[in-house]
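Honest question from a wet-lab person: if I give you the sequences of every part of a complex, can you actually get the arrangement of the whole thing, not just the pieces? Trying it with mine:
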Amino acid sequence: MACLAQAPLFRGLSPRDCEDIASRAKGRRLSRGQVLFREGECAAEVSVLSAGRLKLVQVSSDGQEIIQRLVGPGELCGGVGLTPGGPYQHTAVALETSNALCWDREGFEASLDRWPILQRNALRILAERLRAAEERCRELATAKVPQRVAHVLLRLVGQAGRPEDGGVLVALSREEVAQMAGTTLFTVSRLFSQWEALGLVRPRREAVVVDDTRGLLEIAEGQSPLTAPGRPRFAAVS
Amino acid sequence: MACLAQAPLFRGLSPRDCEDIASRAKGRRLSRGQVLFREGECAAEVSVLSAGRLKLVQVSSDGQEIIQRLVGPGELCGGVGLTPGGPYQHTAVALETSNALCWDREGFEASLDRWPILQRNALRILAERLRAAEERCRELATAKVPQRVAHVLLRLVGQAGRPEDGGVLVALSREEVAQMAGTTLFTVSRLFSQWEALGLVRPRREAVVVDDTRGLLEIAEGQSPLTAPGRPRFAAVS
DNA sequence: TCTCCTGCTTGCGCTAGCGCAAAGAGCAGC
DNA sequence: GCTGCTCTTTGCGCTAGCGCAAGCAGGAGA
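Yes, you can. This is the full assembly:
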């Protein structure tokens, strides 16, 4: 339960209050592939992940799946801030064996009222998440595919990387990376192959080892010749 | 000041409290093109628009501008939920003559503490905004350009449309529409021309009149042959 | 009325990236 | 070991949409 005190949601709360709140939660265990909640269902619970990792996916009307976000230990997911009775926005799928603390909506909102810091923290978390989502929009709207994939990889290294002989292993399939970057598994595969030739990454089955973060950063920033082969566009000169 | 009571932020507050809070605000008048705050500046204020319309823009490292959101009367913008001292996420530019009520960050946060409903409302607003941003991500990642432009137009009809002989006039330039849909002004112009031939819209200078909402909806949903000329993709059959 | 300016249209060429199909490569279970 | 399954790679063709440039047009101001 020590992890709870470090969760952004509980920052500033006394350990005693943390424990009080945690004691009201129901613990849920998920093995890889299991679903914590499903997009469109009535949002009955709010959860904080205590161990493991989830992906939050959405599926568009034509059946395309995209990954909106990964959730790691200490992070919040579920029906936060939604209007009562509203549906979950995502389907939460465990990427590995995970544990979650789950409160029913009513109980959680009662806690928000009782500990104002909690509500303040929730506001901060949503604001930060909104910032991230808008940044993603900006990137999808303006950046080329290689830049986006490189950026996704860099985020994943920080968020879900495990050290692996000299590099960092990111345990996601080509398809999942594609679903985070807004492209196809084919294109991701091709990019990985190119980057392997440059010594940036080592492709693995359902994973990739990142060796040269610096190099990926250059691609993500668009400084690499790989992403800016022609002439870059200029602003009008006065 | 009657509009304040209808602003989502103040929902559930007594008129008396509304007035109290409003009296602490500084009123600002903006004429078309003026800037209320600028991306990257220290976020000193929180604002509610009382009249007019703003666009919230971001510019990416390579100079591309995108429009993240429009703000209408009663809507909130500025430094909400940010960590103290953090920067504004957008530049707010008036699309027409506008009035805003502005609180300094400290005063606003004090009000949040004093009226818990206020904080609850802010949470709802951010959650809704997050939902919208994620939907936009999904669309940018999965939908084709004509679908996205049609969808932007439909949103604009509701958000910023003025009735105009039989249709609804949306007063944004091709470029601005492009910046909302993640494409170029050329492509938007071409689409408008096509749609004009179908009787869906009437292009105007720095504006467009939408005549057939239904037709645009079909394009946005991808049911129109215009957006799905080839074979649509299928899920694998068992 | 003429001029200028800014925004819009449209033709043209081009390429990034998609989508398919077929072949390879790990991994599990028998 | 062999078999089958799923994930991945890669060649190939194709087209949506970008980017430019040239010309058009609607307002504002002189």
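Two things worth pointing out. The first helix of chain B runs from residue 2 to 6. The mean pLDDT of chain B is 91.
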